[in-house]
Task: structure prediction
Amino acid sequence: MSRPSFLSKFGRKLFDPGEGKTAPLELPDQKALVREAALELQAALSLFNHVTERELVDYAIFRLNAAERHLVYLLQEARRQQEPGGKE
Result:
């Protein structure tokens, strides 16, 4: 079975960007990720504190929990990388 032509074109563009294209973007460093996660946690906390509609309470709680867990994960990874013998 052959792939649709749009998938073939997409695959070529994805894996062979061609001449004149810039290199793939670099991933943000660990500090930038932690700062971004801390801002997301602040935003989630603000949403939780200001939500007034009953239908949004579950969403606010979910977002707050997710942001907190993401920040904790990133901090644990940063700590692991700074330990002697940790991955770098």
